[in-house]
Design brief:
This protein is α+β, with helices and mostly antiparallel strands. The protein is built from ten helices and 13 strands. The protein binds adenosine-5'-diphosphate and magnesium ion (MG).
């Protein structure tokens, strides 16, 4: 199968076919209509086998996740995703793999009205780069540098489940097969909080998505905003499965430092804290207050009256 037949068969019509796409796949570059857009939000992420997903990951899940991590960046910016491009490097042509990969990608793209408008297809070690382009609200994008002293710090969903899922592949954990399966779904099919972020944006001061682990990602907000934070470790939202394993390990390290959750972490001014909880409830979004922004520059994690010391370091590629 030639490069061009691969593109034609699997990638020429993928995702929502949007009215603002003037030219999608098929020319030297894609053309989109940007009238009525204030600013574009643009981001790219690469997934490498063995680094960003274990080799046992299904092609469907790789397709899903490669777009999901980018949609999560749009959520963190309060941006509405519109168009994606895909640079795909494959060791060989495997039609079953391609069909499943494109189905996973397309299912998620369809859910968020994203159209695949171009890309590049080459041969080599498996690598997937997705670029996402979105538009930001008139009220402006969410940024990391807008946290203020006194803001409440919130996270969505549960933390640590994806990391626990990854751990379950290599270690024996005190969990049922169903529980392990649920954790692997968290790892392989992240649900980016795009809709939720757009709805809550007007109440949020600073935001980031939790991709590398809470400690690392919240620290980015603190550094960008030149503030400090106190987080209460006992308020970190963890699942039943996590709690169960935690009874054995007595550790919040995975929830604090594990990556791949793709939840949102954001700060909210005092006067908006009530309102944002009401709005989150309407969206059936689990939102937990985990601490507060203070003066200074450091992140302090408290366990009751004592400081909680984190044993595990956040993931860093280098
Ligand atoms: P060029 O040689 O001009 O770079 P290509 O042969 O790489 O063009 O690609 C032909 C067309 O197919 C272009 O519109 C490109 O954007 C698109 N394309 C190539 N690979 C992919 C892919 N994996 N997903 C989506 N579109 C792709
Ligand atoms: Mg090309």
């Amino acid at each position: 199968m030639s490069e061009f037949s691969i593109i034609e068969k699997y990638f020429s019509v993928l995702g929502k076919q949007r009215a603002d796409v003037i030219k999608g796949v098929g020319d030297d570059a894609a053309l989109v209509n940007t009238s009525n857009i204030q600013s574009l939000a643009i981001s790219v992420d690469t997934l490498i086998e063995g680094v960003h997903f274990p080799s046992v990951t299904s092609a469907y899940d790789i397709g899903w996740k490669s777009l999901a991590v980018n949609l999560s960046d749009m959520a963190a910016m309060g941006a509405e995703p519109r168009w994606a491009t895909l640079a795909l490097t494959l060791p060989k042509v495997d039609e079953t793999w391609l069909s499943e990969f494109s189905r996973g990608f397309a299912d998620l793209a369809g859910l968020f009205n994203v159209q695949l408008i171009g890309g590049d297809t080459t041969r080599g070690a498996l690598s997937i780069s997705v670029q996402i382009i979105g538009s930001t609200l008139e009220t402006g994008a969410l940024k990391r540098d807008k946290a203020d002293v006194g803001d409440g710090i919130y996270v969505t969903g549960f933390l640590g489940d994806a990391a626990l899922g990854l751990k379950s592949l290599n270690e024996v954990l005190p969990l049922s097969d169903t529980e392990k399966q649920e954790l692997l779904v968290k790892l392989n099919r992240p649900q980016p909080k795009v809709t939720e972020s757009l709805k809550l944006a007007s109440y949020i001061n600073a935001a980031i998505d939790v991709s590398d682990g809470l400690v690392s990602d919240l620290s980015h907000i603190l550094q960008a905003s030149q503030v400090a934070a106190i987080v209460n470790v006992n308020s970190i939202p963890v699942s039943r499965a996590y709690r169960w394993c935690n009874n054995f390990t007595q550790s919040y390290d995975l929830a604090l430092c594990g990556g791949d959750d793709y939840e949102l972490c954001f700060t909210v001014a005092k006067e908006n804290e009530r309102e944002i909880m009401v709005e989150a409830e309407k969206l059936s979004l689990q939102c937990t207050r985990i601490g507060e922004i203070t003066e200074g520059t450091t992140l302090t994690i408290m366990d009751g009256k004592n400081e909680y010391s984190v044993q595990q370091k956040a993931y860093d590629h280098f």
